[in-house]
Structure formats: structure tokens, C-alpha cells
Amino acid sequence: MKIRRFFAKDMRTALSQVSAELGSEAAILSSNKVSGGVEVVAATDYEEALEHSRQPLSSTRGSASQTTGQSTEQSTGAAQNQSAHNRLSNNSLSQNPIHNQTSVHQGTAEQHGLNRQSDLYNPLQDDSSAASTLANATTNHLKRFLNKQSAGAKQRVTPEPSYSESEQTNVKSMPQAPIPEQQQSFPNIEWSQEPTLVAMREELNLLRNLLEEQVSQIAWDKQSQASPVKVALTREFKRMGLNESIYNDIFAQCENERDYECAWQKALALLSKKVMVGEDEILTRGGVVAFVGPTGVGKTTTLAKIAAKQVVKHGADSVAMITTDNFRIAAHEQIRTFGRILQVPVRMVDDEQSLRDALNHFADKKLVLIDTAGMSQHDERMNQLMQCLAHDNINIQHYLVLSATSQSSVLKDAIKLFSPLQLSGCMITKLDEAASLGEVISTIIEHQLNVIYTTDGQRVPEDIRVARAHHLVSKMVWLTRNRQQTEQLATGTH
Ligand SMILES: Nc1nc2c(ncn2[C@@H]2O[C@H](COP(=O)(O)OP(=O)(O)OP(=O)(O)O)[C@@H](O)[C@H]2O)c(=O)[nH]1
Ligand SMILES: [Mg+2]
After folding, report:
1. Coiled-coil region(s) at which residues (predicted)?
2. Is residue 343 scored above 70 in pLDDT?
3. Least confident window among 187-201, 268-282, 305-319, 396-410
4. How far is the CA of 112 from the centre of ligand 1 (A)?
């Protein structure tokens, strides 16, 4: 496209100049009244340039008209005919520059929808009104052109919700018009990704989160208002892994304390009271004592620790060891080794009769310790063991060995499995390996089990001690604080 600016004393002269210099195909882009005359901006090849810039839109329209049917095809055809007619009339009037110019403009205007009389240049009007009409027409024309362009772009982005399925099928089955480059770059938009819906969904999610937070804040505030001390205690006890069922009545006795530290100390003291502990009854009373419990919790090791203590306290003659663990050679060897080191006799039994015989054999011993194989409730040898141990006329005290590292469900299962043996109490092993004691303490309180010993290492006989409630509770607090500090250090919030 070639654009030129012309200056003349009036519009008529200016148009003559345009026609003379740019030829009959020139188009007036703008005209202004300036001091001493008029200024006209004209261009050649304007139509081609315009057609070229309209090309993607026309292609889109072409494909759209195919889908909408015959009437659009007819109107497009009519427009083409009109355009051809305009060119013919331009040629026939090429001798007269004024007519020529009028036709040029008229053709362009009609092609782009400027059909109103007021939009067209009329050479019979005076120069100034002609110039302003021409300027308005050009501006309006450009505005409409740009509007159409942006409307076309919008049409391409927005999916067509009104398409019925059959219409969509028809569209698909039709020969596809070449897709303009601009259109190809748009992603295939699905309904679920419709931007407005996505934005609304996100907005709703935000509102829901806000609402939930507000409601929980209100609940928390209410609780805090009721008793800030109780709220703080609840948070700490939960952190220690204790069950709610065991501390509700404790807090009822502490919530009137003004000072949190006093309430905290009082709550811990009350908790300690709930932990039932025995005396060093095995060593003081003696008798026949069996160690039962899940696999690998430390039954044999704990038995050896107690046997060693008995040896130290009352001599090697006062104690004997029996094992029902005759399935595994290693287990058998383990207890025999302990016997050899401690110079304590060991017998292996496999049924009720052999147990009776062994007990008769060790009748002169102050303490007889029975080791059992750890097994699950699904093990068929479990019944055999139970029959062997649970006899009215054999006086055996059964102690359940529990590991502090076990989950509360494992602890509860073990208690349920061995409670038919009328447990005299329990021993808690592996305190040194536990990350938290809340679960084991909650479980023994709930089942009202007497804790006799606790162990905190593998060394025989050093790593065993008579259970003390305050020791268990303070260890639980220490473990929790320690874990918190480690977490804070790890997250950098210390
Ligand atoms: N850290 C630590 N390890 C322990 C403790 N008590 C026992 N152990 C170790 O736990 C492992 C299993 O101990 P055992 O005494 O064989 O356990 P058990 O219950 O007799 O095992 P089964 O006879 O197979 O059911 C051994 O490696 C012990 O050294 C303890 O208090 N702390
Ligand atoms: Mg064992």
C-alpha cells in the first residue's frame, strides 16, 4: 500500500491531484481543513491491503457460512458480484477524476458495509462538509473493521453452547475449511475448563476454607473462654499421645488453677497416680512366673535379667528356668546360654505333663521362670500353650511383656489375647527405643494393668528397673519435648 498526503486550496483540486498522481484506484484515507486549504491523505492498493488484512476473518466467515447454510452463501455471492460491478463502473468512469474518485470510495464503502447515504462522499456538497463526511466515513469504517476483527476473535475463543449434538456431528462431517493460523493456536477448550466456571469454582473453594477456619476459630475461642488452662493442658496431653478418655477427669480437677505451671504439675501427678505399678514382687515373693507376649518384645532377655538379679540377691541355687519354646533351635540355645552363664538349670517342656514334671523337679527353687515363644493369635500352637499354662492346679503367675515401641492397636491385641491367662501384671520393654510413651501408658491405664518392671537396653542384667509411675510419666514428657525441639530445629521455627 502506498500512502500520500495532498494539499490544495479546496477539496475539488485536492481530489484532482490525487487522481492525477495515484490513479483512479486511489482511496481517500482522511481529509482535514487546514489554514489556506484542505489536506487529503490518500492511498493506492488500499483495497488489496484491506482484503489481505481481512483474510483470516473472511476464511472463518466462509467456514461459518458453510455451516449456517444457503442464505449466507447467497449473500456472500451477492457481495462478490457487487464488488465486480463496482470495478466495472470504475473503469467506465475513469475519464472523469471526480466520478472516478467517488466510485472508488463508494466501492470500498459498500464492500465494508457503509451503505448509508450519509457515509458516502457527495461531490455536490460543499468542500468542508464533504471533507468532514469523508473523514467520518473513513473513521467509522476503520472502527467497524476493528470491531469486526475483535468480534471475530471472540467468536473463535468462546465455545458454542447452543450446538446440538447433531449439529456438531454435521460440522465434523463437512469438508474442513483451512483453519487460520490465529485460530489454530487456540487450545481445544472443554466445558470443565471454561474460565468463568473455573474462576467461580476457585472462588467457592476459597470461601469454604474461610468459613471452615472461622467456624473452628469460634469453637476454639469458646473453649479458650471456658478454660484457657484446660485448653493448654489438652493440647499438651494430646501431643504426648495420650487418649482423651484417660485425662478428662484429670483436667476437671486442674482447670480452676490460675497458674498454668501449677495446673500442669498437678495434671502430671494425677496421671502418675493412674499408672498402676507393682512392687519388686517377683524377687521378693518368688514362685512360678511365666513371661508371655508378642514375638520379639524381649521376653527371654527380660527373663534373663530377672534371673540374674535373683542370682545376685539369693544365689544361683534359688532359681531355675523352663522354656516352652521348643520350636526354634536358636531360642532354645539362647536360654541355655543364659543358664550356663548364670549357672542356673534350664528345662525344655512341650505339654502340660512335661511342665508338671519340670515344676516338680524344681520344687525346691524359690523362683522358677518360664519362657514362652512369642506367637500371634492365629498361630495354632497358641491353644497348646494356653492349655499348658492355664491350669487351676498349677499355680503360675503370668506377666505380659509389652514393647514401648508397639502401636496401641498391637498392645491392645496382645492384652486381649493373653487376658484369659489372668495376668498378674506386665513389663514394659525397650523404653530406650520408644519415640513416645503416650500409647503404652494410655493402654495400661485403660486395662488397669500393673507394671512390674521396665527395661531400657539390651544389657543383662543392668538394663532393668522396678517400674515407677513418675519415672514413666516424666520419660513420656521428656520424649515429647525432645521430639518437639527436633521438629522445630528441622523446620527452622525454633
Ligand atoms: N533396645 C532394647 N532392646 C531390647 C530390650 N529388651 C530386649 N531387647 C532386644 O530385643 C531383641 C528380642 O529380644 P528377645 O528377648 O529374644 O525377645 P523375645 O520376646 O524372647 O522374642 P521371641 O522369643 O522371638 O518371641 C533382642 O535383640 C534383645 O536384645 C530393651 O529393653 N531395649
Ligand atoms: Mg524368646
Report:
1. none
2. yes
3. 187-201
4. 94
Verify whether ligand 1 is closer than 6 Å to residue 73 (CB atom): no
Do 404 and 431 form a contact (C-beta atoms < 8 A)?
A: yes
- Output the CA–CA distances (angstroms, integers) from residue 385 to 312, 390, 430, in the order listed: 31, 8, 25
pLDDT over threshold 80, residue 327: no
CA distance linking residue 411 with residue 300, whole number of Å: 18
Instruction: Write the CB contacts of 186 (distance below 8 Å, at least 6 apart in sequence).
Output: 156, 157
Q: Which residue stretches of 227-351 are H helix? A: 228-239, 244-254, 260-274, 281-285, 299-314, 329-342
Residue spans of the domains in the chain: they are 2-158, 216-273, 277-491
Q: Could you write out the DSSP letters of every residue in 37-105?
A: EEEEEEEESHHHHHHHHHHHHHHHHHHHHHHH-HHHHHHHHHHHHHHHHHHHHHHHTTT-HHHHHHHHH
Q: How far is CA 201 from CA 62, 196, 360, 492, in A?
A: 37, 9, 79, 35
Tally the C-alpha atoms within 13 A of residue 202's C-alpha that lie toward its C-beta: 8
- Tell me which fold the domain 277-491 belongs to: Rossmann fold (3.40.50)
Ion ligand 2 residues within 5 Å by Cβ: 299-300
Average pLDDT score, the chain: 74
Q: What is the DSSP letter of 252?
A: H
- Kindly write down the DSSP assignment for every residue of 358-424, as one continuous string: HHHHTTT-SEEEEE-----TT-THHHHHHHHH--TTS--EEEEEEETTS-HHHHHHHHHHHGGG-EE
Closest ligand 1 atom to 301 CA: 15
Say yes or no: CB of residue 212 within 6 Å of ligand 1: no
Q: 302 C-alpha to center of ligand 2: Å?
A: 9
Half-sphere exposure of 460 (CA within 13 A, CB side): 20
Specify whether the backbone of 315 is left (phi greater than 0), alpha (psi in -120 to 50) or beta: left
